[in-house]
Write the structure tokens for this entry.
Amino acid sequence: MLVVTQLDDPTADLVVAALNERNVPVVRFDTADFPTHLSFAATVGAGDTRDDRGAFGGIYNLDNYCHIDGVGGWLRARSRTVLLSAVRSLYYRRPSAFVFPEMAPQDRAFAILQARYGLGGVLTSLPGCLYVNHPHRIADAELKPAQLAVAAEVGFTVPPTLVTNDPAAARAFAGAVGPVVYKPLRLLPYADAEGQTRTVWVREVDAADFDETMRHTVHLVQAKVEKAADIRVTVIGREVFAVRIDGEHLDWRRDYSTLQYTVMDIPDHVIRAVRAYLERFGLMFGAFDFALDANDVLVFLECNPNGQWAWLEEEHAGLPMTAALADLLARGCVDGR
């Protein structure tokens, strides 16, 4: 199986260790390794023309290229080589961007685009491969308006939400629904004038702040949920793990040192809904965030198709998340699903 992620990824380290314990052959690499430490050769639709098989020897044998039913060829990552037709599972975590540092800007832009669509196209087209999750499905499921629409369709309670660049619309919305919060539609590394890394937290905003500068881009404004706690529900295949998070901030990620965690059970109708949600997006994994309101209703906030989960297992050693993910990937290696 393949693990595609950056070099410094403690979560992937746990999964790889668990796969090694299960004797599952693993090849791990980062897309940023290309082309210095990563090379590949892939064919599609090469038919069954094998007149010259054996002429190249080793991985260059034409048997490694010619496949009627999909992508063939090989990929070499540092010290290991894998036949693409033999890959049965791919764990797509958090790979780094392509870099090509020695190139001129225009050449670099061209090379990055070709690598993204070439290597990326191959990695998303492996026949008989179980993806956790498929990169295209991740991209679809990261769109917050789509998340909220699907969440409502599968039966979750969803806060009234506005996506706009019109300040008048934002002010009218806030006047209609009461207190509102601002959320970024997509997180991006952000640095201030001094070069310090900053994060845009979810925060309550006043309607008076909606001025003409809103027109410069798109904003997500949402009715504030008066919550008793946050709930993180992590779904790995058919396994569902729920943890209550109690903290001091509207956005609990602001200070992990203040958080308290409690493993909990969630109702069957919520389990059915999270599974229906993942099925709609074609996902095998999802990290759901809910607000628990004063009436004990779980209010859907978002679902990260590539979210973090390992720290919750560290807080509660009884949560076998690593084992669940390793078992899911290992089953894919066995049966090709």
